[in-house]
């Protein structure tokens, strides 16, 4: 006799282990917007609160080709200018060390030709998917 099982009975693997329900994701976004909205300079301009950063797979693929030993990327948040609200994501390749920790692979100093720090992200606000279910309403007063 063949027994059946539901999807819930099956062990999750790969990407499935890291998925969360949409409702939980929306709550996390709301918590972020509320917390970030209290920070200057965002408290006076709730529409400027950083929501997301888009990174093209093509850019990630190019990083993987240029640095075949990397195990991932790390994105550092920054502002384009002092006092600005225009967020940027600074991407660096990450390698795995012998002790299984992950370390940024940054080569060199101030010369952009000698670093592995990339600024090819598209931040939201500016590049937003306002139709996304994770683009939750925020006017600076939501909790």
Q: What Rg do the Cα atoms give?
A: 19 Å
- Oligomeric description of these chains: single chain
Number of beta-strand segments: 5
Number of helices: 2
Largest sheet: 3 strands, antiparallel
* Helical content band: 10-25%
Region (Disordered): 1-20
Q: How would you explain this protein's 3D organization?
A:
The protein has a domain at 45-135. The protein is built from 2 helices and 5 strands. Residues 1-5 have low confidence and may be disordered. 17% of the residues lie in helices and 19% in strands. It is of the alpha+beta class. The strands form 2 sheets. The protein has a 3-stranded antiparallel sheet. Residues 1-20 are annotated as: Disordered.
Features:
143 residues, disordered N terminus, 2 helices, 17% helix, 5 strands, two-stranded antiparallel ribbon, 3-stranded antiparallel beta sheet, alpha+beta
What's the SSE blueprint?
Layout: H1 22-36, E1 52-54, H2 57-66, E2 72-79, E3 87-96, E4 102-104, E5 122-124
Antiparallel strand pairs: 1-5, 2-3, 3-4
Region (Disordered): 1-20
């Amino acid at each position: 006799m063949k027994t059946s099982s539901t999807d819930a009975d099956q062990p999750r693997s790969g990407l499935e282990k890291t998925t969360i329900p949409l409702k939980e994701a929306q709550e996390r976004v709301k918590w972020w917007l509320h917390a970030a909205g209290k920070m200057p300079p965002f408290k006076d301009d709730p529409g400027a609160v950083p929501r997301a950063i888009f990174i093209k797979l093509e850019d990630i693929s190019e990083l993987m080709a240029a640095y075949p030993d990397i195990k991932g990327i790390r994105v550092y948040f920054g502002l384009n200018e002092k006092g600005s609200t225009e967020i940027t994501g600074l991407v660096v390749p990450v390698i795995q060390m012998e002790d299984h920790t992950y370390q940024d692979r940054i080569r060199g100093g101030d010369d952009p030709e000698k670093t592995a720090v990339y600024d090819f992200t598209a931040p939201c606000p500016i590049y937003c998917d306002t139709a996304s279910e994770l683009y939750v309403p925020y006017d600076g007063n939501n909790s």
